[in-house]
Amino acid sequence: MAVYTVDPLLDPRWPALLAQHPHASIFHTPSWLEALRRTYGYAPIVFTTSAPGEELRNGIVFCCVRSWLTGSRMVSVPFSDHCQPLVEDAGDLNTLLSWLQEELDREKWKYIEIRPLDSACFHLEGPAVFSRSEEFFFHKLDLRPGLDALFHNVCTGSRGKIRRAEREHLGYEEGRSEVFLQKFYRLLLLTRRRHHLPPQPIAWFRNLAHSLGDKLTIRIVSKHGQPIASTLTLFYKNCLVSKYACSDARFHNLGGMPLLLWKAIQEGKELGARELDLGRSETNNPGLVAFKEHLGAVCSKLYYFRAARHASYDSAMPGTVDWRVRLVKRLLTRMPDWVLKAIGSLLYKHAG
Asked: pLDDT tens-digit profile of 271-327?
């Protein structure tokens, strides 16, 4: 069976497939892919068994990441938590995976990475061999119950923090203007520094806001006019995605972040969303895992898969951190803000 390519930014068959496919997410959309192209120069491409001129029956979307620092590779898709292959037929999926593995050698890519939300599709017999490369926890909250039931499902401690935030009369606002973006980014910088990491370039968030429009919302809570916590959420079809969250650690006791997530739950209900996607969590971050579970979210395993050119290539074992990485992280905490921003702008395009 032949394999064809589709430009998801230009071919109207791609959004048509997304509109009717139950596994399509915000990370499949031309808007997300366009923001990646604008910010990092990644070229999106879809591989399908549907011939030109035919209705698009399936597709796996990738971005080509070309980097002199980390190697050239195909990723489905960069900076997403998950991106399910939109292929229902096992034969078509095996055809696509086999063809991609052949392209791996022809194009001399370092590896091909796929990030399915449901990894059952990779337990197939056939010539294409993709092995697990990374493992995460994934949390999703069912928004179909009423608000009273949803609040009851929040653990006692988190309910107390939400009530504490309300007693503190924290200011709440939402929008997507440059003013909101700047407030969000200042908190993101604080959070990334706390995690010993540089922030993604502000151009990434600016391009997301431009591409997604009213599908993106920045939420901010403030104390006496000072922003103390913020989230950036994305809405697509029946799913609200909490993609980025950041805060000022000095005010964590006020309950700003639980209040923001509760506000997101309320708005999700108003929008008609049936689920809140709380994204992935590192398996060695029990605090974040517990926070999401305390909101009533259900936890599952999320696996990424790679096919690599060289058998010697493998990702680091989960939980292991090279001493050089630890040294760099310590140095990052001592750098001024402008240096951290510059490092992020330079490095993230190599990290997709």
From this structure: 999 999 999 999 999 999 999 999 999 999 999 999 998 765 544 433 444 544 555
Does CATH number 1.20.1260.10 belong to domain 4-136+304-320? no
- What single DSSP character describes residue 49? S
- The DSSP element (H or E) to which 172 belongs, if any, is strand 171-175
Is the Cβ–Cβ distance between 26 and 239 less than 8 Å?
yes
Domain ranges of the chain: 4-136+304-320, 144-273
Task: Classify residue 213 as exposed, middle or buried by CB count within 10 Å of its CB (0-12, 13-18, 19+).
Answer: exposed
The amino acid occupying position 311 is A
Please state at what angle helix 202-212 crosses helix 178-194, rounded to 10 degrees. Answer: 140
| Alpha-carbon span 231 to 193, nearest angstrom | 17
278: tokens are 């709380």
Neighbours of 161 (CB within 10 A): 22
The CATH architecture that domain 144-273 belongs to is: 3-Layer(aba) Sandwich (3.40)
